[in-house]
Write a structure and sequence with these properties.
Strands 2-1-3-4-5 form a 5-stranded mixed beta sheet, sandwiched between helices. Helix 7 crosses helix 8 and helix 8 packs across helix 9. The N terminus is likely disordered. It is built from 10 helices and 5 strands; from the N terminus they run H-H-H-H-E-H-E-H-E-H-H-H-H-E-E. By secondary structure, it is of the alpha/beta class. It binds zinc ion. Zinc ion binds next to helix 7.
Length: 269
Amino acid sequence: MSRGGTVLPASTGTSTTGGQAPEGAASTTRRGALRWAAAVGGGALGVGTSLGAGSAQAAGALHPRPEQVSDPQQALELLRAGNARFAAHPQQHHGTTRARREALAEGQHPFAAVLSCADSRVPPELVFDQDLGDLFTVRTAGQVIAAPVLGSVQYGVEHLHTPLVVVLGHERCGAVKATLEAIASGAGPSGTAVDSLIEAIRPPALAAIEALGAGAPAEALLAEAVRRNVLAQVAALAADPVLAHAQAGGHLRVVGATYDLHEGTVTFL
Ligand SMILES: [Zn+2]
């Protein structure tokens, strides 16, 4: 999960707060639900020491944020603002700083988990104009969800306390296009692991074909399949028991979004 084979540090919020969660009792309740993480090896994921609330106030960041963001709406607004910066001034994307990097070395408080396509044109940190430590990012082609992907998102929510999960699809997604083409051609499995991507995207792709009709323009069909793929993934995540628990407690929102390759804009669905 990080370079050199080391595990990523996780903030526990305990080193300077004596176990009192910065966001109060609600988080203590959430910690009860965290036993799964400990049981399945939270230590193996590299539970590190916390920076403590506010101690690493986005050190050196050009767009500082509260060290710990627990409100889903606030997290969403941070992403909206970041994407607006990127779309309007992509050349001004800031580099990070040594101070920021060093401040984060002992712990992290990302304010959003982003499950996005692996497409090279859609890196979440760039399109949302965020810095080191801001986003807990999971990427697969077509942002397809498999067990390790779900586990990663669960980890971000339950252990790092990210208040927002974004499923980020994008215009002209190659994985979705390949799925539509496989359906149209009736081609069988290739025998490669790519088949798993196509099988995962097949249901929303079929739904798009049914909605628009097989004779619909390819571009429109692809856009509709991209949108339905994102919505299906949002539904799958929202229904996951671990994420559903966090949502029920008001600690989490799961939202879908699509990215426009030309404009650089993210549209939340
Ligand atoms: Zn894609």
